[in-house]
Amino acid sequence: MKKKIIILLLLIFVGGFVTKVILDSNSTQTDSIGATFQFDENLAIITNKEAKLDININNSDVIKVELKLNDSVLQKWDSPKNKVSHVLKTKGLALGTKKLTVTATLSDNTTENDERLVRILNDKKPDTWRLEVTGEFPHRDSSYTQGLEFYNGTLFEGTGDPGSNGQTLVAQIDKTTGALIKKMGLDATHFGEGISILRDTLYQLTYKNQKCLTYDSKNLTAFPKEHKYNGEGWGLCNNGKYLIMSNGTEQLVFRNPTTFEVVKTIEAYTDEGPITQLNELEYIDGLIYANVYTTDLIAVINPNSGAVVALINAGEISSKYRGRGEVLNGIAYNKAENQLFITGKYWNKLLAVTIKKTI
What we know:
This protein is mainly beta.
């Protein structure tokens, strides 16, 4: 099972033009480096704001200075003296953590780097939504729910295997009874994670095997093709064109469903910082809904920017319905009924819910 230290929201207090925030940085200023940032700490900047970056030139042997944001060059200076400055404009930049690097080239053509991190924060506080239960259906309490999805009106579920007993499976589920209609099981070497169905192909992530398995959604026959990826697999959904994958961090990775190549990556951010532990996913009406692992929160995320537009606290529902089960995990939207469903790991109920939007 996942055993990570939970960092749900990094509390970053933002005020004025720009707020400096201490992150995990080992960089320290020293006159032995040709050029250094004038600020010791890393930065947090609200999106669409600007920040002035001052860079000290520490010796006369520096013939060139280059400033980069990740791999993009922001500005270059030839034969700089004493101090140079750059105004970092965040308009158009994706939310999330990025790396600032100042590179000094010396007269002997050697280079020296100084680095900081900068976090681009959302400019709006997430709305607070809640859920109201409108229906209850049976759910197998032996299912360690990892993925939940409706496709053409049929409910599909993927499960994990915490005991390494070969309990991972994907199945078609009778929504009204909770019974398995068809299933495909995996051996104990595979810990199943999120599932999603796109153009009749069912995709199933694995936790640490670094591969995505594929099936014919009509009969759950396994296709021979497997997709490889680096790192862990957690949740999966799709927007009709790309697969969208979580990996336990604040990142959501968009992938080509044919090649599994990365198309783009976004990071889920509020006005205070990232929301990590993004787990089971569902794409509904242009937004990504994500269970936040080990909590009763569901983050509602803009797929273009990564902005968390709303947080849903399902704590009351979880307290009432989880019973002897574990964490809330499982979001499925049935387009045929215009109905949203949720459940959890080892829960004995599948719940029909409606969203109540509040500010």
